[in-house]
User: Fold JmjC domain-containing protein from Rosistilla carotiformis.
Amino acid sequence: MLQPLPTALSQDHLCDLDQQKFIDDFNRRPFKIGHQLNDHPLFALESLIALSKDLPADRVEYNAGNLPVSQDPTSTPKNGLSVEETIQRIQQCQSWLVLKNVELNNEYGDLLDQCLDQVKPLAALVSEGMTHKQGFIFISSPGSVTPFHIDPENNFLLQIRGTKKVWMFGQNDREVLPETQVEDFFSGAHRNMQFEERFRERGQQFDLSPGEGLHFPVVAPHYVENGPEVSVSFSITFQTQDSSDRQTLHRFNRHLRRIGLTPSNVGERPGRDNAKLTMLRTLRKVKNIVRRPADA
Ligand SMILES: [Fe+2]
Assistant:
C-alpha cells in the first residue's frame, strides 16, 4: 500500500524553473533546474517495490549495473535476481533498474502531471503542444553505469536520492551522432551507441545531487555514472510539436535515402523541412478521406 502524499507536497510548486533558461535553451542545450521531491514517499524503496508489482511486466527493465560506457544491447548481462530482490538489495547487487511509464499507476501519474503542469507554460514559450507525457524511475546501485545512448523525448531528470555524473553531447553534433544514426533510431534501432574517447572533449559533464534536475534535449547523446550511494531518479518526459515533427522528418529522410536520394539534414534547411511536413500532412489527410466509409 502506498503512503499518502504529505500536505506540504500537495501544492503546485514541485519544480524550480527559470523562464529565461527555457527561452534560451529548451530542447537546444542542457540546463539544470531545482525540485522539491527528495522526501516524497512515492520514491521510498517500499513504494517503488509496490509500483514494480503494479506495472505490466514489460514496463520493468533491469540488468547488471557494472557495464562499460559502450554496451552492446544484445549482450547486456542479467543480474539473476527478481525485480523485488533487485530493489531490496540495490545497495549491494550492482544493478540498474528502470520502471517505465509509471503514469500507468494513478498516484505516479498524478505526480507526473503536477510536475509537467509547471513545465508546460514555459516549454510553450519555445514550442507549442505537450503530448506523450511519460514518467520513468531509475533505481541503481552505487557506481553503476548507464551506457552511452540517445532518447526520443524532451526530458527533465530529477535526482531524488544519491548522486550522478552525466556526460552530455550536442543533439546536432554530427561528429558524435551522425544524421543516419538518428534516422535509424527513429525507425526502430536500439538507443545504445558506441562511445569513442575522442568524443569526450566535445561533451559537458554535469553533477547531479538530490534536489537538482537536468534538462536533456531530444536525442542529445549521454551516459551516466552513479556516485558512491544508491541512486533514485525521476525522469519526466514529453513531446512537443517541434520534437514530433523532427521524428517525422528523420523517418521520412530515411525513406528518401533508401530510394537513393540525398535529403538535406533536419534543421539545415527549414524551408525544405516545412515543405516535407506540409506534403506528409496532406498525404495523411488524403489517406484518411479515402479510407473514411461512405455516409449511410
Ligand atoms: Fe537517457
